[in-house]
Amino acid sequence: MSSAARLSPPSPGLSGAGGHDDRKVPPVADMARIIGLSIPAACMPDVVANTALLHGYADLVGSFALPDDCEPAYEYVP
């Protein structure tokens, strides 16, 4: 099990700790080939899992509705 799978919460839409829903898993091998990236076969399961996790977080952020009258944050103060 990868360290990302142990430390990160499951992404929305995926079942179990390492379960995959084929409808949600992006075509990682196709994307890698398009950009000329070679991913070793031993790394592919972790790359797929991390990509699905990031897509889940992107969906979560993208679905967050902001009102039209929301003030912009001009300065970041940690």
Q: How would you spell out the order of helices and strands?
A: HHH
Rg result: 16 Å
Described by strand count, sense and barrel closure, the largest sheet is:
none
Bin the strand percentage: under 5%
Total strands:
0
Averaged pLDDT: 75
Report how far apart the termini are: 34 Å
Class per helix and strand makeup: mainly alpha
| SS element count, helices | 3
What percent of the residues sit in helical stretches (DSSP H or I)?
40-55%
Contiguous uncertain segments of 5+ residues: 1-23
Principal-axis shape equals elongated
Describe the structure.
- The chain has 78 residues and is mainly alpha-helical.
- The protein is 41% helix and 0% strand.
- The protein is built from 3 helices and no strands.
- The chain has helices at residues 3-7, 28-35, 44-62.
- The N and C termini lie far apart (34 Å).
- Mean pLDDT is 75; it is low at 1-23.
